[in-house]
Amino acid sequence: MAIAINEISIKNKFGKALQAKRFQVIAFNAASARVVAAQNNLLNEYDKSEITQELNEGAGAESKILSYGNLYSFLGFDLGDRPAEDLREYIQANIKLIPEAKFRNNIDKNRVFYEFPVQYPTLKDIYENDKFQTPDNWAGSRSWPSLIEDGIGTFASYVYHEFFMTDKSRSKTGLQRETPRQGVADKVLKIKWISKLLDNFKSRIRGKNTND
């Protein structure tokens, strides 16, 4: 019995020692490095995405996503807008490691844990941010990232031309018809884009590898 008590006492002291400030700093630095690496991977995947690249090319882009026109003019951005850059900056600015550790230990298995909360933008955050609302709210209250993720249902009303000589076209290459074009599918786009990138990010901060 005395030996067991001494063993428990030693284990408790060892556990308390690992909660010292110097160990928390070491753990935070390790966690920070993982989050930075995951963030860099997320932004790199974002930059390489065909959707991002097409939006960055602007109103005259040759689309690899749509069979007709391009995303920039379809979504109705003003000529010169940089929607993909705005979204990238928002994502980058809102990933943070919170330095408030939760300590757990399992001395019997020689394992200790420091858990740090990670703040990152969710799809809901992006969808509800006014900065990413569809220009002139032509899709109601939906944001343009949600149109890409969850489906666009008014493609039949979209008309594309290399250059419209009219002030009615914000992008100068796309217009919305009052009546849908005949024989054109009404819903042609539904791509897991930001959701997939965020899932990869969350896997990486948990220490899981992803090949996506």
What does this entry look like structurally?
18% of the residues are buried. With 212 residues, the chain is mainly alpha-helical. A two-stranded antiparallel ribbon has the order 1-4. Strands 2-3 form a two-stranded antiparallel ribbon. The protein contains eight helices and six strands; from the N terminus they run H-H-H-H-H-E-E-E-E-H-H-E-E-H. The N terminus is likely disordered. The termini are far apart. It has one domain.
Count of β-strands: 6
Can you give the helix content as a percent range?
40-55%
> Cα distance, first to last residue?
54 Å
Number of domains: 1
Unreliable residue stretches = 1-14, 168-175
What global shape is seen? Answer: elongated
- Largest beta sheet: strand ordering: 1-4
**Structural class determined from secondary elements:** mainly alpha
User: Order of SSEs, N→C?
Assistant: HHHHHEEEEHHEEH
List keywords for this structure.
212 residues, 44% helix, disordered N terminus, 9% strand, elongated, mainly alpha, two-stranded antiparallel sheet
What's the topology here?
Layout: H1 2-18, H2 21-48, H3 50-57, H4 71-75, H5 83-93, E1 96-97, E2 102-106, E3 111-115, E4 118-119, H6 123-128, H7 144-150, E5 158-160, E6 174-176, H8 194-205
Antiparallel strand pairs: 1-4, 2-3, 5-6
Helix pairs in contact: 2-8
